Amino acid sequence: MTLSVSDPTWYPIASSEDLPFRHVYAGQLLGRELAVWRADDGNVNVWENRCLHRGVRLSIGINEGGELKCQYHGWRYANRSAGCTYIPAHPADAPARRIQNRTYPVREAYGLIWSAANDEQAFRPFPGAEGHDWFALRPMPVNAAPEDVLAALAGLAPDDQPADLLPGLAVRFGGTYYFVQPVDACRAVIRGLLAEPPAEPVATLRHYNETLTKLRDRLERAARKKPAPEPLQPAFDKVSADLATMPDIAIPKGNTITVVVKRKWTSADGVIGFELAARTGHLPTFQPGAHIDIHLPNGMTRQYSITNGPGELMSYIIGVKAESASKGGSKVLVETVREGDLLSISEPRNNFPLRRDATRTVLIAGGIGITPLLSMARFLDKSSLPYELHYFTRAGETVAFRADLEALHGKVTFHTGVPRDEIGATIASALGQWSMAQHVYVCGPGPMLETVRETAAAQGWPEEAIHFEYFKNDKVIDNSSAFDVELARSAMTLHVPSGKTIMEVMRDAGLTVPSSCEQGACGTCLTTVIEGDVDHQDVYLNNSEKASNRCMMTCVSRAKSARLVLDI
Amino acid sequence: MITLYDFELSGNCYKLRLLMSILKLRYDIVPVDFYPGRQHKADWFLRLNPFGQLPVLKDDDLVLSDSGAILAYLARKYDETGLWFPDDPAVTAEVLRWHAVADDITSTASAARLALGFFYDFDVPKAQAGAHRIFRLMDEHLWFGEREGRDWLCSPAHPTTADIACFPYVMLSEEGGIGRQDYPALRRWTDRVRRIPGFTVMSGIFPAGQALEIA
Ligand code: FES
């Protein structure tokens, strides 16, 4: 038999014991180098051993428990999806969507980690696998051709117990199984399994180790006398164009995903937790601070932040405020959606990117605004970065996600029932004076956001260091103006009458325009302005962005001039 | 007052920086341009150490050379816990045994690195094969150690100067073209060394991720 790089057979590539938490194991199968790591949730990842950024080996990366971080440049990839969650120094502090490392199929079974060169075959247990308490021997790497190693192993069988050759470079005699991992054309690892744990484990392991060491030395002596076979040459996917050139803003395609409401519970008075699980496999990679749109049974769409930590992709957990005043949106979720129901959600989007190069990060939450900040705190926690989380709740209101917050290692402070006139002073002391590389993130009711913005500015915090996310635009939109928009790329001029938004006019003209909140809060419809004087009415852009007159939201913004030229 | 005659990229000098960092010792550095300046063969340096080798450590008037010997000296003199070079005849023998292995690693893995990175005229394939021979033995020793509840090279339940002496040129072996893929237990041990409180880095040697705290 000759080895092939596209052989779809499942081979063992490591022992379970080779993968302690927070370690990255270096493996190889059929010429492909693998970075293999166990996440804190127990999941084993088998990835191509290269960081997509510069091709540095990921086996020298840092296993942070939910993400693997490249040692050299800080790119991070999430548990399960291998999706990139962070590109340092990227304009928006966030990667374009769907940058994903190459992954290989994986299964942990019988004390071994199994993988294959591709997904063509489903994993099948080896003959006789079931019903035993398998015990793995010390693996023995051998510099010899895998076929020769297999033949030599078969020769170990005692005369009265002939070796039984199994599919997938494996051999069995008695209760001993040997698997040959084809590392490359001239390298292999012998992985032995005993059907039951021996009475004296260490003595038994030493005995087998001695036998296999002798076998290895014999095989290597013979291999040195033969011409070495050509190493296998796996082809590697080229780095894609959108990796080499970073797009400014990734506009989501509007794909929806169906999820199951796995759990619904009361997290605090008036805050309902929902766990939304994938129907098969895992959900897409998300970044700290990201949200999803939920398409509600009544036809409405609402945004909710994902509270999960890094690499937790089996389900998203959100918190919904059950305000009695809520008209429609959250009310439907709280009142009519039950466990087991299916919901349609968007892919995660991030308008609230977290920098992970800050020397100090301050997170300030008010009420339900805790949700994106809980996710951020979890990411910072896993990376052992310093942060302070301040959570303001009104008197009488209970703290949502309390147990999750108490499990964090950072500094978490609960401010309950602080009188209105003292909130400013509390925020001021929480923030302190600004110095280089400090960032504050805030999410909560409008007045609180304003307080944080003003206080921070007064204490020397520059605009770029203050990050906030609005889910709602509370301002009354003035749509009385009338003007023309010229769409430079579409070569169209449209008239926007009073009472209609630019977005509506463009849609009437047959254009597809991405949007989400349609109230100038989410940033989805951000557009470049080429000419004209914008009447901003959104809460998404900060003051200097607004003053630059270079961008605007087509869902609420209008023109002060008679004409606007947009890059659409 | 401690003064270290130091070359930033030397693993043998790094051993001393590492132990002094772990023991929280303050010291001065006199940089010696080993490459390309070859200052370790200059007259002024040969007067300090006639063997013409880095590192050299001066503690007040005492001048010491050989990284293994200096590790033992620093631990005996400055480590109040007595853990790094334990005062027990059997353990001393064990530690010295691994100091000798560290020298073997230097003459193989480090030689290959010097040849590939610093244009020294050494037999690279021979040095690489020698390093693989040692790494195989270390991997086996450490693998059975894990089974027997031993995390470090020597028998005490904590690291000793033996771990520091062997660590740098194991970590830098890739620079000499010596992969560590076949030595998973050796790789796990390097994670443990990199998690020792007070651990410090050098070019090519990074810290490991935080260990998982089991609540
Ligand atoms: S659609 Fe959300 S800002 Fe315009």
UniProtKB/TrEMBL annotation, chain A:
UniProt xrefs under InterPro entries: 2Fe-2S_ferredoxin-like_sf (IPR036010), 2Fe-2S_ferredoxin-type (IPR001041), 2Fe2S_fd_BS (IPR006058), Beta-grasp_dom_sf (IPR012675), DmmA-like_N (IPR054582), FAD-bd_FR_type (IPR017927), FNR_nucleotide-bd (IPR039261), MRET (IPR050415)
Pfam families according to UniProt: DmmA-like_N, Fer2, Rieske
Keyword Oxidoreductase annotated: yes
Residue ranges of domain 2Fe-2S ferredoxin-type in the record: 483-568
SUPFAM superfamilies assigned to the protein according to its UniProt record, in alphabetical order: 2Fe-2S ferredoxin-like (SSF54292), Ferredoxin reductase-like, C-terminal NADP-linked domain (SSF52343), ISP domain (SSF50022), Riboflavin synthase domain-like (SSF63380)
Keyword set, alphabetical order: 2Fe-2S, Flavoprotein, FMN, Iron, Iron-sulfur, Metal-binding, Oxidoreductase
Residues of the FAD-binding FR-type domain: 252-355
PANTHER family listed in its UniProt record: CARNITINE MONOOXYGENASE REDUCTASE SUBUNIT, NADH OXIDOREDUCTASE HCR
Gene3D superfamilies, per the entry: 3.10.20.30, Nucleotide-binding domain of ferredoxin-NADP reductase (FNR) module, Rieske [2Fe-2S] iron-sulphur domain, Translation factors
Listed name of the protein: Rieske 2Fe-2S domain-containing protein
Rieske domain boundaries: 10-115
Record's keyword annotation contains Oxidoreductase: yes
Cofactor: FMN
TrEMBL record, chain B:
Domain GST C-terminal residues, every copy: 88-215
Xref: InterPro entries: Glutathione-S-Trfase_C-like, Glutathione-S-Trfase_C_sf, Glutathione_S-Trfase, Glutathione_S-Trfase_N, Thioredoxin-like_sf
Transmembrane segments: none
Domain GST N-terminal: 1-82
Superkingdom to which the source organism belongs: Bacteria
Protein known as: Glutathione S-transferase family protein
Organism: Devosia oryziradicis
